[in-house]
Amino acid sequence: MMLNGGFFRLPDDLPNPFWKYPMYYIAFHKYANQGFYKNEFQGLTFPNNIAGGPPTITGEEILKNTWQVETGYSKWIDVAILFGMVILYRLMFFGILKLVEKVKPIIKAAFAASPRQSKLISENPSSSLPDEARA
Question: Which H helix or E strand runs over 47?
Answer without folding.
Answer: strand 45-47
